[in-house]
Amino acid sequence: MLNEILDKSNIQPLKPRPTGLQPAGRIDGSLQCLLFDVYGTLLISGSGDVGTAMQATRNDERLKQLLLDFNINRPADKILDDYFNAINKRHFNLKAVEIDCPEVKIDHIWMKVLGWRNKDMVRSFAMAFELISNPAYPMPGMQQLMEKVRERCLMGIISNAQFYTPMLLERFFNASLDKIGFAQDLLIFSYQTGHAKPSAYLFELAQSRLKKRGLLPGKTLYVGNDMLNDILPAQQIGFKTALFAGDKRSLRLRQDDERCKGVIPDIIVTDLLQIVDYL
Questions:
Q1: Structure pTM?
Q2: Domain spans of the chain?
Q3: How many C-beta atoms lie closer than 10 Å to residue 70's C-beta?
Q4: Which stretch of DSSP H or E encloses residue 36?
Q5: Average pLDDT of the segment spanning 95-102
Q6: What is the CA 128 to chain-centroid distance, rounded?
Q7: Residue range 74-98: average pLDDT?
Q8: Residue 134 needs a FRET pair 20 to 30 A away by CA distance; which of 47, 59, 61, 145 works?
Q9: Is residue 101 exposed (0-12), middle (13-18) or buried (19+ Cβ within 10 Å)?
Q10: Cβ contact 254:224 at 8 Å
Q11: What is the model's pLDDT at position 54?
């Protein structure tokens, strides 16, 4: 059923928007592992920002049609308000047990909002909703980069994500993540851990798994588009960092955020294929 949703979604091509930044920086020494963010790095995020996406979704006729398709007889605004309230409540409860940056499982949220018990139906709705509110498309050079890198170093992902994120990647690659070249133990998605970036938890988990492989943090390059969510926690754990500045929608420099003062990525890349030059 989930594949049917993808088949019917009519995913439209997206193009990145120039940021005005130029490639910069250097990396000393060799790299043995590349870790990637997904949204805004490997995938173009059509919304660029969750809040903006949701406001636009309120006025999107496709949402109204989606509700009709799933026989939901409630106003779109009411559905969205219940959705955000459920997320906020879950975040509050998780913070109460000292999870600093909590992540929800979005299918569980929709199950509560819609009052459905059928998990397959809930996931179908959740995926269809995501494709409306935050359309995604491969970043230029994504597939070529994987082909050039997978024989040269270990690859993994650390990303805020939901159950449909690996499915989208596999659809765009037309292959399973392991066939693409990603190490299974280095696929670290927020919805599976209950922790979201910029929490150090996800990066500490990656560091621990790399240590079991005998790899040092300084031999790992983390690539992401957000100074707070990506570059800061990756540097704190000892990873080399690449700020991906290839799309204006999703580039987050966080210049007014005190937490990012003095944080400088090792390199800035504006095209994914530029990463090959540092291997």
A1: 0.95
A2: 16-46+136-278, 50-133
A3: 15
A4: strand 33-36
A5: 93
A6: 17
A7: 94
A8: 145
A9: buried
A10: no
A11: 62
At 144, list the tokens: 């070529």
Phi and psi torsions of 189, nearest 5°: -110, 140
- Residue 12 token pair: 């439209």
User: Tokens 């943090």, residue?
Assistant: 217
Task: State both tokens at 152.
Answer: 């040269």
User: Across residues 64-77, what is the average pLDDT?
Assistant: 94
Q: Tell me the residue ranges of DSSP E strands in 160-199.
A: 182-189
CATH number 2.160.20.10 given to 16-46+136-278: no
Tell me the pLDDT band of 60, cut-offs 50, 70 and 90. confident
88: exposed, middle or buried (Cβ count in 10 Å: 0-12, 13-18, 19+): exposed
Q: List the beta bridge partners of residue 158.
A: 188
Cis peptide before 198 (omega within 30 of 0): yes
232: tokens are 């800061």
CB 165, CB 189: distance < 8 Å: yes
pLDDT by residue (tens digit) across 166-218? 999 999 999 999 999 999 999 999 999 999 999 999 999 999 999 999 999 99
